Amino acid sequence: QVHLVESGGGLVQTGGSLRLSCAVSGHTFRSLSDYFMAWFRQAPGKDRKFLVAIRGGSTFDTDSTKDRFTISRDNAKNMVHLQIDNLKPEDTGVYYCAAAVSPSIIATSEEEVDYWGQGTQVTVSS
Q1: Cα separation, 60 vs 52, whole angstroms
Q2: Residues sharing a CB contact under 8 Å with residue 21, sequence separation 6 or more, in sequence order
Q3: 23-77 tens-digit pLDDT
Q4: CB hemisphere CA count around 93 (13 angstroms)
């Protein structure tokens, strides 16, 4: 059982930056590098949307996130981070850390994720 706990959300102004963190535990028999670790965002009234992910030495993003969203991983501290720069009001939502355990999966939809954190709220004021 993998346990994910997000932190770092809050209220920020447009143009600001934020660093979210995800503490990972329970992956006793595998390295954190082996997991597909991702960040999703859920805007009010909408489904969770894939943002970025990391596994091994590879990162995954989308056309809408590649310029402002950066994912990183600290294996020694069992942490995954999301750096968001130049925040915009449309970035407002609950940010979720997610993990998929299958070695080859690219989990960009909710159904493909095995574990979720509880989420952290990010609100960007205009």
Answers
A1: 5
A2: 6, 7, 8, 79, 80, 81, 82
A3: 999 876 688 999 999 999 999 999 999 999 999 999 999 999 999 999 999 999 9
A4: 20
Residues 6+ positions from 64 with CB-CB distance below 8 Å: none
Question: Of 89, 86, 112, 81, whose CA–CA distance to 99 is shortest?
Answer: 112
- For residue 7, give Cα distances in angstroms to 11, 53, 56, 121: 13, 17, 23, 9
Smallest Cα–Cα separation from 8: which of 49, 54, 47, 39? 39
**pLDDT tens-digit series, residues 80-119:** 999 999 999 999 999 999 999 988 889 999 999 999 999 9
Q: What is the DSSP letter of 28?
A: T
